UniProtKB/TrEMBL annotation:
Higher taxonomy: Bacteria, Pseudomonadati, Pseudomonadota, Alphaproteobacteria, Acetobacterales
Keywords per UniProt: Molybdenum, Oxidoreductase
Organism annotation: Falsiroseomonas frigidaquae
InterPro entries in UniProt: Ald_Oxase/Xan_DH_a/b (IPR000674), Ald_Oxase/Xan_DH_a/b_sf (IPR036856), Ald_Oxase/xanthine_DH-like (IPR016208), AldOxase/xan_DH_MoCoBD1 (IPR008274), AldOxase/xan_DH_MoCoBD2 (IPR046867), AldOxase/xan_DH_Mopterin-bd_sf (IPR037165)
Name of the protein: Xanthine dehydrogenase family protein molybdopterin-binding subunit
The keyword Oxidoreductase belongs to this UniProt entry's keyword annotation: yes
Length: 790
């Protein structure tokens, strides 16, 4: 249960519940941040990758002589060189099984292709030179002899008989034939249903487009591999690099990460370039740097989404849900990334339930390899999609059955008195007030006023639509997480954590937790998060779990600091340990140890300093207040909410604009409302991008047709509406802070809200469904081809 004393302490200026500005912002805004590409090590040299210009082909030869002869070149390597060096391949680590119980078929991806190229951008060689320009010139001189083969880019096409085969040992390109749920009971529910709604839904492929392209520096220092790289967690990346690839003890690998300009899942795991850099650094005895360029990152970064889904909902005559079924093709790309199969399988399964009383679920997903960039997690990683499918089904079912869609949601909501609720998805919801939150949303969004707004749009010749996105997200279960607290000699206190901030603002939020727990002055708190040498555990950042994991670790570590502090304060105050009390927030604002019944005491910062300065200490008195603690994981949490979007569509051009946007959210206890609202805004922006603009397109030959911002649209400031953010918190009971996570929820609410609004507007023309992205061309064509509803 949440600590009620902690929850009541929001009166503190820097405590939980306060909108404290991000501590890192002054550093970043004045240009003092340090991203990987900002680093220049002594003796540093440059790497440039040579990539396949073909989507599929057999490698007959790679000519490197001309490149080696170019000015400034220090080395050219191919896949054969790295295989000979004994590096292991990168592979998928998900323990998923086929429906027959057999294990998933995985790919074994070496840093450089050796036998075949399997997508445009597949790395085949790399060049290292004294300068970047020299390395680029030399890379252009590498000669590729590749026999082209037919390519396949869509998952359903890869499953067809006679489709191009990417691997001889993976027949039919099928890596996973996943099924979860009782097929017999689900089939019976559909057979006996009064009504069945079916929708074919395309979950469009997305380029991640992090603000900072990937960059890394490899070096070999004192017999250890050192990789400086932007990532989502140095502890996990070190384990992958050491155990899978470099085949050395983890102590021989160090991962260092500074500021990271976005990731959204894409930078979580190892990439081929990192192996190449470390190999060259060891061979040449100098640090080797590589920074991607935007066009190359479109090809080489892992993409997101990409599913073809048949979604079905069975209802009884009163509109109560009987079963939901998803049958999907999931595009894995040319190689399985670490978590690639998770999104369209387990995460569909967990999240399609949403906040509805749905007794039966079945998910059937065929995960297939194609000649495209590998796919991995992208903000939500299957969670927004599961909610999107359910919300589109609800809207379609309501129209087909002549029911009010809001009432249909209310009728099927899990009620507070049913908590804790054992969902068919296997989740155990600990709490939530879904109908009250929906009702609050309806009031805040002024749904009664929609008719007049629609009439005003019609007077301008515009179609207006309103869309609701009710959602519930199952966060990733928190892994073991470090919560180190270190009192430094300069009077600061360092939090050491295994999660990693790549834009979220962890420094302030974690400092607020520590300040409230033991009264350490907020402005004296620092955050250490990007050095694997500092860590004994770390789950990294992903799945909306950082505060639940690191926050809980900090709370528990704070209790250990107080425990040590009592023994130290007894020495400092010449009293018995049993007489020492601790007050986290006396009038002074700083945590203080006191002799019970007196005003004699010592502040926590003063006590830490006295321990450091003491020449000798009696037995039983700790030398420091420092603590290294590992929080043992808590269950998943279930952030939920409801978004409402209103759009206007110009039927003459197909242009969709978002006129109004509201989100009401239950994120449990919110540590920093300003940061949480910012996280919601970011997720909503990315959801709007996918819903209205973004989509990767490939030609028949596997060439990416959206390989730059000339052809790939991202939402700009002018495309974004004003976003109203409202909080409806129901504290979680499964972690010490009562938090539920918020990082991915913006996408989970915005995808259905925006697309339901688009379909609602187009329903005037008899249009029942349109796939993302609802671009002007696609909307205009839908209007032209659809008979107008009478």
């Amino acid at each position: 249960m949440p600590d009620t004393n902690m929850l009541d302490a929001t009166r503190l200026k820097f405590g939980i519940g306060q909108s404290v500005p991000r501590a890192e912002d002054p550093i970043l805004l004045t240009g003092r941040g340090q991203y990987t590409d900002d680093i220049a090590l002594p003796g540093q040299i440059w790497c440039v990758m040579v990539r396949s210009p073909y989507a599929h082909g057999v490698i007959r030869g790679i000519g490197t002589d001309a490149a080696r002869a170019m000015p400034g070149v220090l080395g050219v390597w191919t896949g054969a060189d790295l295989v000979a060096a004994g590096y292991g391949p990168m592979k998928c680590g998900m323990p998923l099984k086929n429906r027959d119980g057999s294990p998933i078929r995985t790919t074994y991806r070496h840093a450089l292709a050796t036998d075949k190229v399997r997508f445009v951008g597949d790395p085949v060689a790399f060049v290292v030179a004294e300068s970047r320009a020299e390395a680029k010139d030399a890379a252009e001189m590498v000669e590729l002899d590749i026999d082209m083969l037919p390519a396949v880019t869509q998952a359903s096409a890869a499953a067809e008989p006679g489709a191009p085969q990417l691997y001889d040992d993976i027949p039919g390109n099928l890596v996973l034939d996943f099924q979860q749920g009782d097929s017999t009971k689900v089939a019976e529910a559909f057979a006996s249903a009064a009504h069945v709604t079916r929708l074919g839904i395309r979950n469009n492929r997305i380029v991640v487009c992090a603000m900072e392209p990937r960059s890394a520096i490899g070096s070999f220092e004192d017999g250890r591999y050192v990789l400086r790289v932007g990532c989502q967690g140095v502890f996990g990346l070190r384990a992958q690099m050491a155990n899978e690839v470099l085949k050395v003890p983890t102590q021989q690998v160090r991962i260092l990460t500074g500021n990271v300009g976005g990731s959204f899942g894409m930078k979580a795991n190892a990439y081929p370039e990192y192996i190449c850099l470390l190999h060259a650094a060891k061979e040449l005895g100098r640090p080797v740097k590589w920074t991607d360029e935007r066009t190359s990152s479109f090809l080489s970064d892992q993409h997101g989404r990409d599913h073809e889904v048949e979604a079905e909902l069975a209802l009884d005559a009163q509109g109560r849900f009987l079963a939901v079924r998803l049958t999907s093709f999931a595009n894995m790309g040319a190689y399985l990334s670490t978590v690639a199969p998770l999104m369209g399988t387990a995460n569909f399964w967990k999240n399609v339930q949403s906040n509805y009383r749905t007794p039966l679920i079945e998910v059937v997903t065929r995960s297939l390899l194609t000649n495209t960039s590998p796919v991995s997690a992208y903000r939500g990683a299957g969670r927004p999609e599961g909610n999107y499918f359910m919300e589109r089904l609800i809207e379609a079912a309501a129209k087909e059955m002549g029911l009010n869609a809001i009432e249909l949601r209310r009728r099927n909501h899990i009620r507070p008195e049913e908590m804790p609720y054992a969902a068919a998805s296997g989740s155990n919801y600990d709490g939530g007030d879904f109908t009250a939150l929906l009702d609050q949303t309806i009031t805040a969004a002024d749904l009664p006023g929609f008719a007049s707004r629609k009439a005003a749009s019609a007077e301008k010749g515009l179609l207006r639509g309103l869309g609701i996105g009710n959602f519930l997200e199952c966060t990733a279960p928190p892994t073991k997480e470090q919560g180190g607290i270190r009192f430094e000699k300069d009077g600061t206190v360092t939090i050491v954590t295994g999660t990693l901030d790549y834009g979220q603002g962890h420094w302030s939020a974690f400092a607020q937790v520590l300040h409230q727990s033991i009264g350490v002055p907020f402005h004296q708190i620092r955050l250490k998060q990007g050095d694997s040498d500092e860590l004994v555990a770390g789950g990294g950042t992903g799945g909306s779990k950082s505060l639940m994991a690191s926050g809980a670790a900090i709370v528990e570590a704070s209790e250990l600091v107080v425990e040590k502090g009592r023994a130290a304060a007894a020495w400092a105050l010449e009293a018995a340990v049993s007489d020492i009390e601790f007050e986290a927030h006396p009038e002074s604002g700083e945590g203080r140890f006191l002799i019970a019944g007196t005003d004699r005491g010592v502040g926590i910062m003063e006590l830490a300093a006295r321990l450091q300065q003491a020449p000798a200490l009696p037995e039983g008195v700790p030398a420091t207040l420092d603590v290294t603690h590992v929080f043992d994981q808590a269950p998943q949490a279930y952030p939920n909410g409801c978004h409402v979007a209103e759009v206007e569509i110009d039927p003459e051009t197909g242009i969709v604009s978002i006129d109004r946007y509201l989100s009401v959210n239950d994120f449990g206890v919110i540590v920093n409302p300003m940061l949480v609202a910012g996280q919601a805004h970011g997720g909503i922006a990315q959801g709007i991008g996918q819903a209205l603009m973004e989509s990767v397109a490939f030609g028949e030959d596997g060439q990416m047709q959206t390989g730059s911002y000339l052809d790939y649209a991202l939402p700009r400031a002018g495309d974004m509406p004003d976003i109203t953010f409202v909080s409806h918190p129901v504290p979680a009971t499964t972690n010490p802070l009562g938090a539920k996570g918020c990082g991915e929820a913006g996408c989970a609410g915005s995808l259905p809200a925006v697309m339901n609004a688009v379909v609602d507007a187009l329903s005037a023309h008899g249009i029942r469904h349109i796939d993302m992205p609802a671009t002007p061309e696609r909307v205009w064509q839908a209007i032209q081809s659809a008979p107008k509803a009478g």
